[in-house]
Amino acid sequence: MYREVTLLLLVGLVAWAYQAIQPPPPKICGSPDGPPITASRIKLRDGRHLAYKEHGVSKDMAKHKLIFVNGFSSCRHDEPFVTQLSPKVVEELGIYSVSFDKPGYGESDPHPNRTMKSLALDIEELADQLGLGSKFYLVGYSMGGHAVWSCLKYIPHRLAGATLMAPVVNYWWPGLPANLSKQAYSLMLPQDQWALRVAHHMPFLVYWWNTQKLFPASAVIHRRPENFSPQDLQILQKIAHRQHHKAVATQQGVFESLHRDMRIGFGKWEFDPLDLDNPFPNNEGSVHLWMGDEDRLVPVILQRYIAERLPWIKYIEVAGAGHLFAYADGMSEAIVRALLSGHNK
């Protein structure tokens, strides 16, 4: 009898644990229990939909066409570049921009099998269906930088130029020196260190870890003020009206948006960005990496190493800037003009 009771308790515990780590199904946009479809969307080859939003001049009038990739917990409404420019500058540059919801975010269908490569191919298909031409510019902000690295790997021939804005780094890239990764990793808040350990080593626990109440979960998800520099805190007040965008970003569920980003971004990559070759060997375009030296979310020491390792990247470090400096006055124009200059200087 004792053994039978023990066995039943063990089976019950295993069943409970299994249920606890299983995320609920996403609430697909347009489904009976999902949010309504309000965005413009394209239908991809595999049947998924990708939601997007256009900014700047019309495609027909544009001299330059740009795709913007959002960061963590952001959606198509969060485009801090062309939307920050004055109408006069937009007209002068003749710039068109399109931002989109990554799979599982906003009104884009989830992609449970998403990989670094699949996102690059989604971007290529978005460009083709919108008629952006054989080449386009690409900008990735924060975790959107992962998509830029992926496009530099898989579709470099489609890029006219690319910009990485405070790109999040995977601490397990093979090309990063172990001592440097360890030093940078130690700069994060302890709960963020644990959140990334789970994402990398035990991705099947990401949902449970970030929804349980026993231990502190990701401070990034909960927007803890310790993760923001003095400049960031000022900018947060300036862009407070954008805070409701997070609810839009995660309206289909946090697992296929935030948690999927974490699993892919901090998991084992299919390639090492530090092994990439210059996509513009004839100086027909350029890759820029902008970084604030007071960024508390992405350690600047890693970006400095990346810039040294990949000398074909034009590295610009902004003094006194945090993670949100793209929203600072004048920054969007400086970033866009540098990208459109067309060559390294």
A few lines on this structure:
By secondary structure, the protein is an alpha/beta fold. The chain contains 12 helices and 8 strands.
Can you characterise this structure?
With 345 residues, the protein is an alpha/beta fold. The chain has 12 helices and 8 strands. It has helices at 2-21, 87-93, 116-129, 145-154, 178-185, 190-201, 206-209, 230-238, 245-249, 255-265, 300-309, 331-340, and strands at residues 40-43, 49-56, 64-69, 95-100, 136-141, 159-165, 287-292, 313-318. It has an 8-stranded mixed beta sheet, with helices on both faces. Strand 1 (40-43) and strand 2 form a beta hairpin. Helix 3 crosses helix 4 (145-154). It is globular and about 80 Å long.
H-E order: HEEEHEHEHEHHHHHHEHEH
| Unreliable sequence segments | none
Helix amount: 25-40%
Counting DSSP E segments of at least 2 residues, the number of strands comes to: 8
Structural class: alpha/beta
Summed up, the helix count is: 12
- Give the CA-CA distance, first to last residue: 80 Å
Strand content: 5-15%
Could you name the key traits of this structure?
12 helices, globular, alpha/beta, 8-stranded mixed sheet, about 350 residues, 8 strands
How are the SSEs ordered, and which strands pair?
Blueprint: H1 2-21, E1 40-43, E2 49-56, E3 64-69, H2 87-93, E4 95-100, H3 116-129, E5 136-141, H4 145-154, E6 159-165, H5 178-185, H6 190-201, H7 206-209, H8 230-238, H9 245-249, H10 255-265, E7 287-292, H11 300-309, E8 313-318, H12 331-340
Parallel strand pairs: 3-4, 3-5, 5-6, 6-7, 7-8
Antiparallel strand pairs: 1-2, 2-4
Helix pairs in contact: 3-4
